[in-house]
Structures are given as C-alpha cells and as structure tokens.
Amino acid sequence: MATQDISSLGDIKLLVNTFYAKVQDDDLIGPIFNQKMLGRWPEHLEKMYRFWQTILLEEHTYSGSPFPPHKQLPIDQAHFDRWMEIFTSTVDFLFVGKLAEEAKVRAANMAYMFNYKIEYFRNAEKQ
C-alpha cells in the first residue's frame, strides 16, 4: 500500500516509468503508443518527466505544447478512458497525498481536453 506522496523528480520518474510500462503492454492503447513511439520511448519518457515535474513540483523544466502530437492519432473516448484507468491505478498503487490527487485531476482534465479537441478537429475536417 502506498504510504507517501509525490515529492521529488525520482517519484515522477517512478510514476512515469511504471505508467508507460503498463501502457505498452495494454491491448487497447499499447499498439497505438508503441507504433507512434517506435524507437523513441526514451525521448518520450524524458519529456514526460519534465512535463509532470513542471505541473506537480512547479520546477519549470518542460516547455512546449502537449496537444499537437496527439491531434491526428486514431483514438477516441474509449482510449482516453483506458489511459485514465491505467494512470489512476498507477498513481493509487504508488502514492497517496495531495500531489497524487493533483496528478489524477490534471490527467483527467488533460484527457478530457485532448479528446474534445481531437473530436473538434475531426468534425471540422469533415465539413
């Protein structure tokens, strides 16, 4: 059972590495990630460390726009639901506390917004 909160870059790395190991093995979202990240997993993980370090620890190491790489992916609500299920269970398994809860809220907000934007762009392209 988790006994501590997210408090360091080491914790962020543990969260990101554990989460993406599960993602890579997942039947629904694993193939999409593995195809997109082919040969670039280390680079992606480093980017995710910086992203979550900036959001949760307020150590500004990430710059960029997270949405554009996701815009053309063949994903829908079911993929985001699975992503959130894996993320939430990973956080809950590893950590407990204010920042752990913040991570889940931020992830849920991001999943909602990404799905909304992807649907918006798909519908705009059909017109």
UniProtKB/TrEMBL annotation:
Q: Please give the name of this protein.
A: Globin
Query: Pfam families per the record?
Result: Bac_globin (PF01152)
Protein source organism:
Flavobacterium hibernum
The UniProt keyword set, sorted, is: Heme, Iron, Metal-binding, Transport
Molecular function in Gene Ontology: heme binding; metal ion binding; oxygen binding
